[in-house]
Each structure stands twice: as C-alpha cells, then as structure tokens.
Amino acid sequence: MNENQNKPKQEAPKNAMGEASAAKSSNGVKKLLTRKWVAPAVFMAAAAIIVTLMWIYQGADDSKQTSTNETVQTEATKGGEAVKPTDKELEGIRKGEKLAWPVANVEDLQVELPFYDETASDEDKAKAVVQMGDTFSAHLGVDLVDPNDQTFPVQAALSGKVTLVDRHPTNGNTVEISHGDGLVTVYQSLSEISVAVGDEVKQGTIIAKAGRNELERDLGVHLHFGVLSNNEAINPVTAIAAK
Fold first, then answer.
1. What are phi and psi of 111, to 5 degrees?
2. Same-domain pairing of 48 and 101
3. Which part of the chain is the M23ase beta-sheet core domain (predicted)?
4. Taking each helix axis from N to C terminus, what angle separates 38-76 and 14-33, rounded to the nearest 10 degrees?
C-alpha cells in the first residue's frame, strides 16, 4: 500500500485562501463595474455630495452676510432711534452759515399757515391753529404752498447731518437735520425723499419735494417747516431773520 494514501490530507495554507478570496473579490468588483447602471449611479452620488457641500458653504456665507447687515443696522441706530451726532462732529459742517428758507425762491410761495406766537394778537393766534377732529393745537412751524398747487423742491435750510427720516401717520414723510448747538430743522409733508439717516448735507441741497399729509390735508401740496432750539419750537421767520 502506498504510504501517501494513509497520510491525512493537509488544508491549504491560510494565506493561499486569502489570496483566493481577494482574487474572487477583485473579479466581483470588475464584473460590477462592467454593468451599465453602475457608472451613472456613482456619478449621481458624487454630484449629490458636491451639491450638499456647496449648499452648506452657501448657508454659512449667508449667515455671515446677515450678521454683517445686522452690525451695520446696529451702528446706524440705537434702540430704534437715530443716532444724534455731537456738536463737535457738526462744528466743521455749518462754517458760520445763517439759517435760510428751505426753498430756492420763497417769494414764489406763500405762507398758508403761520407759526403760533404766544405774543401775537388773538386774531393772529387763531390763524395759527391746527384742527384734528375735535382737537385744536398750536401750529409749531410754517407751511409753504405754491399758489398753483404744484410741488416744489425742498432744500436743507442749513448745512448739517440727517438724523431722522420717518413716515408719520398724520404729519407725513418727515426729515430732520441736526446743525449743532441744539439746533434742528424739521421738514414734514414730503414726497420723493432723497436723503438717508447719517447723510451730511450742505445748505441748499435738495432733500425732497413738497407733498401732502393727513393732518393738513386741506392745504393740499405743501411743506411744513419747523425749527427746534434745544427741543423747543421757535418761529422760523424769527430764526431766519436773526443776524
């Protein structure tokens, strides 16, 4: 009898089995890649990953932009109110100018509603009262109108800085300009406003056009011009005439 027949068969070495398994796996991958649907599927998966990464990056970029815009808004306003420039900031803007009428030729217009002067006669006081429903109030400005009921350009009465641009429910579109030393000019019943909060304007710069408002709607197109000195309304006629 052959001695080799009595010997038990030896198992194949483990590394040989690993090589056989690897070869089999490699052949399986090659067969998978040869199928028609595999390449498009791989391409679509890669594209989806790229799009997702781009979306994430864009979202992060938008967040940065929103944050920047919020910062700008915070710098422009504090608690919803316009930031008031200091007198020192306004020192070099006025340069010794005198207050003027906020129109090119005041002679072409007429005063439709005067300033309420406590020292005036009873007759003149009665002409300077504004009625809103059953309420009567002193008129703390001067209303200018065109005799032909036409609009006209509104100018800065003095060089300064725009500190308020607002839409008031009764007074209409409003602009305020600070000039330093507690002096502020007020422009109401406007249309086509062309300035923004923070703008520095020179005397004579067109800031808007005359328009309409609810409080004085009977006047039609007009400009309400007011002057404040340390938050107290003063007669614009007197302030302009002051030397």
1. -80, 110
2. no
3. 138-236
4. 80
pTM above 0.70, yes or no: no
The parent domain of residue 200 ranges over 87-241
Phi, psi values for residue 138, rounded to 5°: -65, 140
Here the tokens at position 16 are 């040989």
Per the domain annotation, does 150 fall within a domain?
yes
pLDDT of residue 61: 41
Q: Which of 79, 101, 119 is the last residue of a domain?
A: 79
The Cβ of residue 20 has, within 10 Å, a number of other Cβ atoms equal to 11
Per-residue pLDDT at 176: 97
Residue 217 domain-assigned? yes
The pLDDT of residue 133 is 78
Residues 57 and 124 occupy one common structural domain: no
The SS3 call for residue 144 is strand
- Whether 41 and 151 map to the same domain: the answer is no
Question: pLDDT of 103-150, one tens digit each?
Answer: 999 999 999 999 999 889 999 999 988 887 788 889 999 999 999 989
Same domain, 106 and 220: yes
Q: Name the stretches of the chain with pLDDT < 70.
A: 1-84, 91-92, 243
Smallest Cα–Cα separation from 222: which of 132, 125, 154? 154
Residues 6+ apart with CB under 8 A from 159: 93, 94, 95, 97, 179, 200, 201, 202, 203
Q: What is the pLDDT of residue 135?
A: 85
Shortest CA distance to 145 belongs to which of 230, 216, 85?
Answer: 216
Tokens at residue 11, please? 């198992």
